[in-house]
C-alpha cells in the first residue's frame, strides 16, 4: 500500500520506571520521532491506572502501547487477562495505538468491539525469530491478521540472507491495509532503512546505541541525519555497499550527505552479502542503481557481472557494479584510479609539477605490500603509469602471480625489512594490517621506512595508521587511504547518479575524517 502520509519513525521507550519513560519520550520528540512505543513490559513496577494516565497525559507524541509477553519475545511473564486489561485501559485513556500479538488478537478485538475509541488503532503483530517465510506464507499471514480486524498489520521476521528483505518489501508495497514490515538482524537492516521507499507504515529507531528493542534497530539520529529518512519515497534510487563485513565503511556517511546537498533522489545503504551471484539475481530491479563492492567479494563480483570493464578485467577485481537499464550488470574497478591519482597528486605538489604533464610515477620503483584485490589494482595502475613494480606479500605465491602479470619482481613480505630500494621509491600498503581494531600493527618495521620518498596506506580506518605515523616520524611524505577512498568514489558517484561528481563537496564532507 502506498504510504501517503510518509513512513513514520517510532522510538521504543524502554524505561524501567514511568519517570524514566517521561524523560525518554521528551528526548524522542527532541530528536524528531513521529511517535513512541511505550513498552509496558520493561517497567519494573506497573500500576496501570496511575502510570497510564501519567504516560498518556504527559507524552508529547502519539503513543503506541505494547505489553509484550515472553512468549512473543517480550519481558512480561504475568497473567494474560491482566495484560490485556492494561492494553484496554490504555486504549480507553487515550492511546493512539495498541499493539496486540496475533495469537490473542481475535479475543482482544472482540472484547473491545463496542468500546474502541475512533482514534485508537489496533496493530496486530507477529514476530518470527527463526527466519523469513516465503512470500505466499507472509501474504497468507497478513490476510489472516487483517481478517481478525487489524487496523495495521505488523510482521517482523528474521533475515538469514540479504534477499529476505525483498519479501518484506513485497509485503509493504502490495498490502491493502497499512503494514509494518521489518526483518531483524544485520542482514535485515535495509528493511528498516528503506521503509519509506517501499511503503512501510513505520520503522522503529532507538534513542541511542544500546537502547534498541530489536537487533540492528538503527539510531534515530542515523536514520534522519545519515540515511535522509524524510527524503526517501517510492522513486528514490538505491545504491549501496556489498561486502562482509560492511559495518566499518564510511561510504554511507560520504554518499548520503552528498546526495542530499545536490538534491539527487537517492540513498546509499549497507548490504551484508554472503553470495554475490544470488544477491545480483535477487536485487535486479530498477529500484537499485548499483553497488560499491568490498572484502571479500571483489573477485567474485568480477565473475558474476554480465560485462566487465577492460581495466577491471586486467586487474582481476571489481569494486563497482552498475545495473544497466536492460538489467545487465557491468563491473568496474575505481580503486586503481583512486590510489594512483592520490599518490600522483601528492608527488606533483612535492615536485611542483604542473597537471597534464606525464605521470610523476613514470620510471619510479613502486613497492606494493599485499596481493589481494587492492594489491592487484595498485600493481596494475603503477605499471600502467610507467613505474617498475615490486610486489611483497605474506603468501609469496600470490605476490609472484601479480608480479609476473605486470613484469615485476616478487618478495615475501618479511623480506622488506632488509630491502634497500633505490632513492625516490614509493611504498604502498594494500594489506589489511593496521586496520581497526588492530590499529597498532604495521606490515613493516619503522626503521625500514626511511628509505622511501613516499608511503601510502590503503587502510582508511583509522586514517592515520601506525604505518603512516611511523613514516611521518621518519620524515617521509605520506598519502592516506582516505584520499584514495574519496577519489575512487568520484566514478562510482557518476555511475550511480549519471551526474558529474561534485569533487569539492566530497572533500568537504570527508574533511572530518
Ligand atoms: P584482500 O583481497 O582480502 O587482501 C588482503 C591482503 O592482506 C592479502 O595480501 C593478505 O595476504 C594480506 N594480509 C591479511 N592479513 C595479513 C597479515 N596479518 N599479515 C600480512 N598480510 C596480511 O583485501 P583488499 O580488498 O585488497 O583490501 C586490502 C585493504 O585495503 C583493506 O584494509 C581495505 O580496507 C583497504 N582498501 C581501501 C580502499 C580505500 O579506498 N582506501 C579501497 C579498497 C581497499 P595473504 O595473501 O598472505 O593472505
TrEMBL record:
Molecular function, one GO term: 3-dehydroquinate dehydratase activity
Single GO BP term: shikimate metabolic process
Domain of life assignment: Eukaryota
Gene3D superfamilies reported for this sequence: Aldolase class I, Leucine Dehydrogenase, chain A, domain 1, NAD(P)-binding Rossmann-like Domain
Domain Quinate/shikimate 5-dehydrogenase/glutamyl-tRNA reductase: residue ranges: 361-428
Domain named Shikimate dehydrogenase substrate binding N-terminal: residues: 241-321
Name of the protein this chain belongs to: Shikimate dehydrogenase (NADP(+))
Protein species of origin: Stephania cephalantha
Amino acid at each position: 500500500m502506498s504510504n501517503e502520509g510518509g513512513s513514520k519513525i517510532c522510538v521504543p521507550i524502554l524505561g524501567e520506571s514511568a519517570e524514566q519513560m517521561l524523560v525518554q519520550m521528551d528526548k524522542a520528540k527532541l530528536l524528531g520521532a513521529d511517535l513512541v512505543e511505550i513498552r509496558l513490559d520493561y517497567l519494573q513496577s506497573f500500576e496501570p491506572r496511575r502510570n497510564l494516565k501519567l504516560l498518556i497525559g504527559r507524552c508529547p507524541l502519539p503513543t503506541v502501547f505494547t505489553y509484550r509477553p515472553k512468549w512473543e519475545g517480550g519481558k512480561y511473564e504475568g497473567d494474560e487477562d491482566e495484560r490485556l486489561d492494561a492494553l484496554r485501559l490504555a486504549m480507553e485513556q487515550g492511546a493512539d495505538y495498541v499493539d496486540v500479538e496475533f495469537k490473542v488478537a481475535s479475543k482482544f478485538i472482540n472484547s473491545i468491539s463496542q468500546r474502541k475509541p475512533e482514534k485508537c488503532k489496533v496493530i496486530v503483530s507477529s514476530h518470527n525469530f527463526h527466519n523469513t517465510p516465503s512470500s505466499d506464507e507472509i501474504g497468507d499471514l497478513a490476510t489472516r491478521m487483517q481478517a481478525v480486524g487489524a487496523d495495521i498489520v505488523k510482521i517482523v521476521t528474521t533475515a538469514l540472507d540479504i534477499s529476505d528483505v525483498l519479501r518484506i518489501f513485497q509485503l509493504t508495497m502490495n498490502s491493502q491495509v497499512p503494514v509494518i514490515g521489518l526483518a531483524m538482524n544485520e542482514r535485515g537492516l535495509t528493511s528498516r532503512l528503506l521503509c519509506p521507499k517501499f511503503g512501510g507504515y513505520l520503522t522503529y529507531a532507538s534513542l541511542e546505541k544500546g537502547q534498541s528493542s530489536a537487533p540492528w534497530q538503527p539510531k534515530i539520529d542515523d536514520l534522519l541525519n545519515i540515511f535522509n529518512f524524510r527524503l526517501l519515497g517510492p522513486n528514490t534510487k538505491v545504491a549501496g555497499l556489498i561486502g562482509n563485513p560492511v559495518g566499518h565503511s564510511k561510504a554511507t556517511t560520504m554518499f548520503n550527505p552528498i546526495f542530499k546537498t545536490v538534491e539527487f533522489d537517492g540513498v546509499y545503504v549497507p548490504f551484508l552479502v554472503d553470495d554475490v551471484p544470488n544477491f545480483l539475481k535477487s536485487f535486479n530491479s530498477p529500484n537499485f542503481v548499483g553497488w560499491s563492492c568490498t572484502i571479500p567479494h571483489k573477485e567474485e563480483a568480477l565473475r558474476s557481472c554480465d560485462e566487465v570493464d577492460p581495466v577491471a578485467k586486467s586487474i582481476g577485481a571489481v569494486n563497482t557494479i552498475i545495473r544497466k537499464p536492460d538489467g545487465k550488470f557491468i563491473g568496474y574497478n575505481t580503486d586503481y584510479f583512486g590510489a594512483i591519482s592520490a599518490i600522483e597528486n601528492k608527488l606533483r605538489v612535492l615536485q611542483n609539477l604542473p597537471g597534464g604533464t606525464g605521470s610523476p610515477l613514470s620510471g619510479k620503483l613502486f613497492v606494493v605490500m599485499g596481493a589481494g584485490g587492492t594489491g592487484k589494482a595498485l600493481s596494475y595502475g603503477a605499471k600502467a603509469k610507467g613505474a617498475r613494480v615490486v610486489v611483497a606479500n605474506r603468501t609469496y605465491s600470490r605476490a609472484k602471480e601479480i608480479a609476473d602479470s605486470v613484469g615485476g619482481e616478487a618478495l615475501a613480505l618479511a623480506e622488506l625489512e632488509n630491502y634497500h630500494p633505490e632513492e625516490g621509491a614509493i611504498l604502498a600498503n594494500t594489506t589489511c594490517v593496521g586496520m581497526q581494531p588492530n590499529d597498532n600493527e604495521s606490515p613493516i618495521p619503522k626503521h625500514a621506512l626511511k628509505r622511501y620518498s613516499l608511503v601510502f596506506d590503503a587502510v582508511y580506518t583509522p586514517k592515520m595508521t601506525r604505518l603512516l605515523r611511523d613514516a611521518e616520524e621518519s620524515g617521509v611524505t605520506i598519502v592516506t587511504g582516505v584520499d584514495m577512498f574519496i577519489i575512487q568514489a568520484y566514478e562510482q558517484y557518476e555511475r550511480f547518479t549519471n551526474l558529474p561528481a561534485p569533487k569539492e563537496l566530497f572533500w568537504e564532507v570527508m574533511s572530518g575524517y
